[in-house]
Every structure is written in structure tokens, then in C-alpha cells.
Amino acid sequence: MVAGQPHTWPEMPAAARVVTDFLANLRLTGDAVAARRLFADRVSAHQVVAETDETVVRRPEEYADHVADMVAANGPFQIQVEELLVEGDHVYVRWHQQGWTDPNAGVDAARRPLREAASAVYRVAEGRIQEYWIQIDRLGALRQLTDSTTSPQEKK
């Protein structure tokens, strides 16, 4: 997926259009205008962090800032959508995102490629994302960060 170019197909369900628009225009860039258009006033993000569940409630501008901070630290990244399923107002997306390690994170001073697997279910109502459930392979990312002798490409 390329920033600013959401996936579309004929007769694409409205909920899927919102989610692909979100991925291409907000998740990749932190675009605050896209955040106000695609997010409800308060969005609950149900996240799996390590072995615990956590719910974070964000306003559109807060989510845009969150992504902008991520892009500033790690540089631009890409998303490759592997699967997208729609059932009514719920959209399931499984993807890989690829970017760079943050040399300021304190784990490794080198800037190296970083690839993470993720999946999420988004609930869309009134043309906006209302809440979502997300899982990101943080352990796989941590292994890439802490293994300073082998690059992610060499492990394949």
C-alpha cells in the first residue's frame, strides 16, 4: 500500500473503503485532516501489548500525532495488506509493515530494516472508525532489534 493510494475494487463495501482509506492516508502518514475525516471523535483501540490487553482511547488528532511520532522516529514505512475481510460494519485486515529501527531507542545504534506482522478488526459506523482491536508482533520486532549480528534479510 502506498501513502495516499488506498486499495479499491468494484462494489467495495463502504466499511472497507473507510479502512483502506485509513491505512493509506492516516496509518502511513499521520495526516491530521484524514484523522478527522476517518476517525470518530473518540476511538477505543483495544491492543494486545505483551501478554496483557490494553485499551487506549484517542481523539483523531491524538492518533495522527501518534503516527507522526512513529514516522519521525523510524522514517516512512510501507504496509503490505495480506488479507482484508468484511462482515457488515467490521473489517479484518492482516498486513506486514516495513520500516526502519529507531537508533534512539537505546537497543542498537544502527538503523536497520524492521518488519512487523499485524492484524486488526475495525468497527465502522457513520463512515468513520469507531473502535478497533489490534495485535502487532512486537516479539518479532524485538528479536530484530536485539540481534545485532544478523539483519532481517539474512534470516529469511
In short:
With 156 residues, the protein is an alpha+beta fold.
Keywords:
156 residues, alpha+beta, Nuclear Transport Factor 2, Chain: A, six-stranded mixed sheet, 5 helices, 6 strands, globular, Ester cyclase, NTF2-like_dom_sf, Cyclase_SnoaL-like
Characterise the protein shown here.
The chain is an alpha+beta fold and 156 residues long. The chain has one domain: Nuclear Transport Factor 2, Chain: A (Roll), CATH 3.10.450.50. Helix content is 31%, strand content 39%. The chain is built from 5 helices and 6 strands; from the N terminus they run H-H-E-E-H-E-E-E-E-H-H. Strands 2-1-6-5-4-3 form a 6-stranded mixed beta sheet. Strand 3 and strand 4 form a beta hairpin. The chain is globular, with a radius of gyration of 16 Å. The two termini are 22 Å apart.
What's the total count of β strands? Answer: 6
**Rounded radius of gyration (Å):** 16 Å
| CATH fold-level label | Nuclear Transport Factor 2, Chain: A
* CATH architecture designation: Roll
Structural class by SSE content: alpha+beta
* Average predicted local confidence, pLDDT: 83
